[in-house]
Amino acid sequence: MTTVLSSTSSSNDRIPRGSWPQSWLLTVAIVGVLLGGWEITLRLRGIEASIEADREAWILTRAKLRPGSTVITGSSRIQAVIEPGLWMRELGGDPPIDLALAGSTPLPVLEDLAADSSFHGLVLAEILPMYAFDLRSDGETILQEHLKAYRDARSSPASRWEAWLRVYLLGHFAFRREAMLPKELIPKLMAGHFPLPPYNSMRPDRYHPVSWQRAGIRANRPELLDTIAFRPTILETRPAQGATLDSLFRRIQHSVESIRRHGGQVVFLRFPACGGRRILEEEYFPAGTYWAPLRELTKAPMIDLGDYPEVTSLHCYDGSHIDVSEVPPVERLIAEQVKQLVPAAVGP
Amino acid sequence: MVFSSLTFLVFFSIVLLLYSLPLSWTTRKVIVLIASYIFYAAWNPPFVLLLMGSTVIDWIVAKRIDASEQPGRRRAWLMLSLGFNLGVLGFFKYGNFLLDNFIALAHSVGIEYHPPHAGIILPVGISFYTFLTLSYTLDVYRREIRPGNSFLDFAFFVTFFPHLVAGPILRAADFLPQCVTPRRGDTDQIGWGLALIVIGLFEKSIIADSLLAPVADLVYQSVDRAGFVDAWTGTLAFSAQIFFDFAGYSICAIGAAMCLGFALPDNFRFPYAAIGFSDFWRRWHISLSTWLRDYLYIPLGGNRDGEARTQRNLMLTMLLGGLWHGAAWRFVVWGGLHGTYLAVERRLKRRWGDARWLESAAARVALALLTYYLVCITWVFFRASTFRDALRLVRTMLIGAPDRLSLGTSNTLTVFAVTIGLLASHWYMRDSSLEDRWRALSWWRRSVVLATLILCLAFVSGDDRAFIYFQF
After folding, report:
1. Better-scored residue on pLDDT, A178 or B378
2. Which one, of B97, B89, B98, lies nearest residue B125 by Cα?
3. In this complex, which of B43, B173, B287 lies closest to A156 when CB atoms are compared?
4. pTM score > 0.90 for this model?
């Protein structure tokens, strides 16, 4: 090999030499002590490590879906209620695939399953009108991005490996919890208080047990205070109406019919809020406007937990999520209803 | 696979471990070669066949060219290489662009033509490895180098994972000799190589992705609502983002190669301290600008055939350089603006190049700021989603419009602080190097700096973004 071109400058010619082993040992020690100390501090304050409800965890769960799977979709309310182990004990079959997402609508998942002609499983779709029919909600956009990332990951091993590493490696560190990252932590510290332990955590199967006790909250707010606290949030919404609402209903109807054609089943679930929040949700997103037409159009079986006093009497501090200790009876109730409504969808 | 991923961390640890085993040089090269194919295939496995095809064809063609004494036959082999490499690049990178322009042209003459969209996926890094293999064949054709005897070394050169997907664009004469002698990273190389990876990741993940990208995205996604301050804030954010993103990637690449005992060429030398555009292109994406100079500008005639030809050659080189970046007219305009700047600068230099006042510190600072200002204008065409958006934003930056975006004071202050820090640091280090600055640090100060950077990386949010230059 004859070299004629002169070599360009390269960083190897200018390496800062000497003492690198000491430098790196000290670096590792500093990082280890500070990160380890911070991790211990967080654990002592009751903040546990948890998988984050992010895109990677969603992609990994979506990848587990099989043609006959039971799929859970909707918002965080259903994620806090369907514990896969108990569901399997009640209904048999494989663990349900939890594709719900906080603040989201089941529509993108329904459309994705409708487009898959091999899917013939059961879909338990929780619809929270405040998210599903709010034109300002970004829940659908986020879920569409998750779906795109999932499709991209199918052709890219690196994306799948990265998702796996992020979920199962970073999920072991409390300091990696979203609430503990600088973007959220610093404003709270500047406001003079250390964050309370998050009220929920996420398991690898995306079940979200909510523990109000762990979060140091034991009592409900009075209904009036609850209403006042939640009103600014619901005032931000822009409920879909007229042709826009019809279009959303049609998309849901089309998805349900397609899934049925493949041999699948869709069961809608309504999980009412608690306290003052329930009053406001009903005021801004009345069941007559958002539930009745859906029932009429899709003819799909529906479970309205608002019909069950044992559910409506439950307390949920934030108006949305019941405590983990109250999950089993509610989940059994849902499972019992599913058995009655779609006996064919129940596993062996 | 991207450097700023946990996957790369695991991959690189395994490669370093295997590479350090007491095995023969050939075996260790084979290990790195296989690792490089895995690195590439991890993005989309079938496209590794393109990379292999390009490697095999240029290896054979270069051998044939070297063995032949007949100019016609040599030229025919060269054409085969050019045809294959540029054909593949043209199909994957410019296929949709050409089709869209053909449809637009047909519409303009009243022909309604609606072919199905080709849906071509752009193989990552294709522009980089195509230029790399082309330079090898062209060097052999010009008899500037002789082809090596080892196909393993050539495949290693083409696929070596640190440079594979976004450069620096290597030259065979620089790299192939390094494959002949057995090498391992010594303590200093591994120490500094790892430090470079940490610095590069900090630039990419913290400064580019966390601090700047959200602001640039917000402005460029809402061009219609951007006012004077918004437009400048977004553009300054992108100017800094693209530097930290690409320079960060290049530093990681150099660091990863160094850990294995290999030297890669520098790709950036504090470009925002450039005084004029010829200086800018000696500092920005150096491996591409030297490639364009050696394989396009000089073969076109360079500055040998009079002023008019020189200006034409400059413009053609920059237009094609722009098109290399992306299949869109925005990139052509970006290249055209740089070509215009270079041509105007050349004329001004001929007239006032010897003026003594140009040597004063104030004049140099003013010219550097003017260069940066004009570079920022070109970045608008590079970043905007459409040509219309770019024109609108440039107009807003030049003549103003009311600010209707809610960027937030902290975002605006962050962008201006980063920009001032970036310009000041580039000016301060204009005639030195990163290595010079590190050499001045005591060993424990190095540790403090590295630990700080690593701690920042440990807390960075999980919103990973691909390196901007991966799309090219």
Report:
1. B378
2. B89
3. B43
4. no
